[in-house]
Amino acid sequence: GLRHFLDLDRMGSQTLRQILDHARQMKARRGGMPRGAVDRDAPLSGDILLMIFQKSSTRTRISFEVAMRQLGGAASDLDGSRLQLGRGESIADTAHVLSAYGDAIVLRTDQHSNLTEMAQHATIPVINALTDHSHPCQLMADMLTIEEAKGPIRGQSVAWLGDGNNVASSLIHAAQRFGFRLRLACPPGHQPNPAVIEAALAEGADVGLCDDPIEAVAGASALYTDTWSSMGQERAPEELAPFEPYRVTSELLAKAAPDAIFMHCLPAHRGEEVTDAVIDGPQSVVWAQAENRLHAQKAILAWCLARG
Ligand code: CP
Ligand code: NVA
């Protein structure tokens, strides 16, 4: 079958572990090489990645482009606004056509069903670059980042604070597949997708919801938050009031395990979900997370496009 990368819960733990280990190896091998230099083995020489971003992106879009270059291939950003898709050509027809030109498709879209439809009709691998449901590429970079800072992910304790959004769902999937403890504290009405939690619990994952942010961070070696206003569900200032108790401040960080790391997928709304003192402080690993998008995605691409 085709090696789509759609969601972590649809992948096996062993496969995910292999991808993560490969990412770490490839990162180590690059040493001080210039960013534009091709990896010595150029594993994706001649391959073309077709990227469709129907929402804004800095990290995902650019790290995929650089990833393909380092792997010896190329990426083309198809500019969602200029595709016939924007004038009503179907996702299925677009999938057929793109499959004739490229070797893999990256899609960032609003409705998750757009992604699964693309994967259903494409005859080349499709990669989820974020939907309203999930953001699995982000979590692969984050697993790499946690392991660099804290050692093996299995058995770590992670706390999520704030909006139970797409990144939170992929974090739950990650807890389920990589075997770490996860506590999520979110305001009423903004809790994570219950189906995602139920599925994780049914598989025996150590995932739990708390109302109290202090309870969630107790013993945590990593605190993770994200914007209170995701793309496509922007909130007016007055709608943010329920989120206030979940802001990651120095006081909250001090209630986690000593030397806990602070994580954020970025972009940040500084002063809302996190204070400057935390995101710019010594426990923050946000720039490592952003860099690791590149290394993790190289390993994802190599897995999707491995032939034979
Ligand atoms: N974290 C993340 O996916 O960032 P972008 O929206 O800039 O791609
Ligand atoms: N939850 C955010 C993540 C951005 C990378 C959003 O969907 O906008």
CATH class of the largest domain: Alpha Beta
The biggest sheet, with number of strands, parallel, antiparallel or mixed sense and barrel status, is:
5 strands, parallel
Counting structural domains, the number is 2
- Separation of termini? 12 Å
Share of helix, binned: 25-40%
The CATH topology of the largest domain turns out to be: Rossmann fold
Q: What are the segments in which pLDDT stays under 50 over at least 5 consecutive residues?
A: none
The fraction of residues in strands falls at: 5-15%
Number of helices: 11
How is the largest sheet built, in terms of strand order? 7-6-5-8-9
Shape: globular
Mean pLDDT: 97
Task: Assign the CATH superfamily of the largest domain.
Answer: Aspartate/ornithine carbamoyltransferase
Ligands, ions, cofactors: phosphoric acid mono(formamide)ester, norvaline
Structural class estimated from helices and strands: alpha/beta
Family: Belongs to the aspartate/ornithine carbamoyltransferase superfamily. OTCase family.
Enzyme class: transferase
Pathway: Amino-acid biosynthesis; L-arginine biosynthesis; L-arginine from L-ornithine and carbamoyl phosphate: step 1/3
Subcellular location: Cytoplasm
Structure in words:
With 308 residues, this protein is an alpha/beta fold. It folds into two domains: 8-134 and 293-305, 3-Layer(aba) Sandwich (Rossmann fold), CATH 3.40.50.1370; 138-289, Rossmann fold. The protein has eleven helices and nine strands. The strands form two sheets. It has a five-stranded parallel sheet with strand order 7-6-5-8-9. It has a four-stranded parallel sheet with strand order 2-1-3-4, sandwiched between helices. β8 (222-225), α9 (250-253) and β9 form a beta-alpha-beta unit. It is globular. The chain starts with 12 loop residues before the first helix and ends with a helix. The relative contact order is 0.16. The model has no long low-confidence stretch (mean pLDDT 97).
